[in-house]
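USER:
Make up one protein:

ASSISTANT:
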Amino acid sequence: MHGFKGVRTLMRVHVGANDQWHGKPLYESIVELLRREHFAGATVFRGILGFGASARVHQGSWFRLSSDLPIVIECVETEEKITAILPRLDEMIGGGLITLEQVRVIMYRADVPEHERTGSWPIVVP
């Protein structure tokens, strides 16, 4: 089982929903890259309103659904793995933002049915 606790790095990648990489949505390509590189996981969030370096506001509405909404990809991994992937992300991302911050992981585990849980990974906050 892939699991870890302790200090890790949270990476957030901010891009636009219209951004592409080799004919695919950029956010999908980034998640596929992270999976191929055996990152612990990744989550993509679609924003409802935002602006970036261009100061152009991106928003959706009930009457006009913007296809270029803000997208944030988050993952938590070791600093070494994230540092190693940054040059590849630099190739892929035209405009956007990448942030890194130190986080403390207190639980990371796959979903296991209650009757199969052993209690071997309790949540313990020191």
